[in-house]
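Section 3.1: Structural characterization of target chains.
Under the original work plan, the team committed to producing a structural model for every single-chain target entering the pipeline before any wet-lab resources were allocated. The record below documents one such target. The sequence was received from the expression subgroup and is listed exactly as submitted; it comprises 226 residues.
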Amino acid sequence: MARADRNAAVAEIVESFNDAAGAVLTEYRGLTVKELQDLRRSLGENASYAVVKNTLAKIAANQVGISGFDDLLTGPTAIAFISGDVVEAAKGLRDFAKAHPALVIKGGVLDGNILDAKEIAKLADLESREVLLGKLAGAMLASLSQAVYLLNAPLAQAARLAGALQAKAEEDPSILAGGAGTPAAAEEAPVAEAAAEETPAEEASQDAPAAEATEVAADEAETTDA
């Protein structure tokens, strides 16, 4: 390979690393051209799948600051550069590998961290971004519905009370006219009359000892004169 072509190939791999959210290294030996095309289609917009030379991939990885790739860059290598949902792309690669055992997932890189094949498999077992967003939206909607219910509950209670008051008023119109307070006033009147009647009796009982004392004094005076 000419030096210019080599530099251009390295620059292309560097650009793919920089634009990707993550990358998965695979061995494709044994896959047919058609199967490779099917794999690219199955990944869709989530990832691009490119066959690379190991030496050029090592140079590109070093240029973007990825270390620890050397052990993975053995044998025929193709890299899935993931630009979309990392979990969804990992699921696509895992499912394709199950159907086509010739595809071997060797490892990858995510946020600058090197992942082995087992860690890629764990990543594929996670829920996709769309599923998580759906659950989050459902939780937010449930919380919003609960908040609306709590806000409307006092209004509903007030409406029920108003309805009950209106029904009561239809039976007894005096409720809305202040009639509800009339019986209380009527009850107070007899109490006042009773208090008025009791007052003279109490005063008479208090005056009785004074009258008796006056009579005793008069009797003593007559006896002394006699």
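The two ends are 166 Å apart (CA to CA).
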